[in-house]
From TrEMBL:
Thiol-specific peroxidase that catalyzes the reduction of hydrogen peroxide and organic hydroperoxides to water and alcohols, respectively. The keyword Oxidoreductase applies. It comes from Gorilla gorilla gorilla. It is an enzyme of class 1 (oxidoreductase). This is Peroxiredoxin-6. GO terms for cellular component: cytosol. Keywords: Antioxidant, Oxidoreductase, Peroxidase, Redox-active center. Residues 1-133 form the Thioredoxin domain. One of its GO terms (biological process) is cell redox homeostasis. Pfam families: AhpC-TSA. It catalyses: a hydroperoxide + 2 glutathione = an alcohol + glutathione disulfide + H2O.
């Protein structure tokens, strides 16, 4: 997040806080990294605004940690700066990056949104659900897949198509 008390960041954190129970059901830990000159006290005050805007009790606590990276060490290491957007000192601001790390500590997904575009938390949750399902079962999720909708058996090809290739076989979610 580029700064505390900014509108896009506030809406992102508010939505992430609302979806935190859904991520927790999937054993997912949310962590937010903030690149700013803001202090821990500012983060706490900002949390009240985020919760109030999201319709929650305006407490200082969010259901995930916010890691402060004033010196940009993590942002540089992880490639999380948006070269197209600059701050008042002509320095790149934080891009809106999502990393999903699997239980094996390896990256399973990385998405970079420009600093001007908020992340889609529902899509992140959908992808996490798909990653977990496809890691456990021999299935693949099609375009726009939602939980409990039909998916494909991985490696099974049976449907007749004009191409003569038998690669589409939808099946109910296990």
């Amino acid at each position: 997040h580029p700064r505390d008390f900014t509108p896009v960041c506030s809406t992102e954190l508010g939505r992430a806080a609302k979806l935190a129970p859904e991520f927790a059901k999937r054993n997912v830990k949310l962590i937010r990294i903030t690149l700013s000159i803001d202090r821990a006290g500012d983060h706490l005050a900002w949390s009240k605004d985020i919760n109030a805007y999201s319709g929650e009790e305006p407490t200082e606590k969010l259901p995930f940690p916010i890691i402060h990276d004033k010196n940009r060490d993590l942002f540089i290491l992880l490639g999380m700066l948006d070269p197209a957007e600059k701050d008042g000192k002509d320095m790149p601001v934080a891009a809106r990056v999502v990393f999903v790390i699997g239980p094996d500590k390896k990256p399973k997904l990385s998405v970079i949104y420009p600093a001007t575009t908020g992340r889609n938390s529902d899509e992140i949750l959908r992808v996490v659900t798909s990653l977990q399902l496809t890691a456990e079962k021999r299935v693949a999720t099609p375009v726009d897949w939602k939980e409990a909708k039909k998916l494909f058996l991985k490696g099974v090809f049976t449907k007749e198509l004009p191409s003569g290739k038998k690669y589409l076989r939808p099946t109910p979610q296990p």
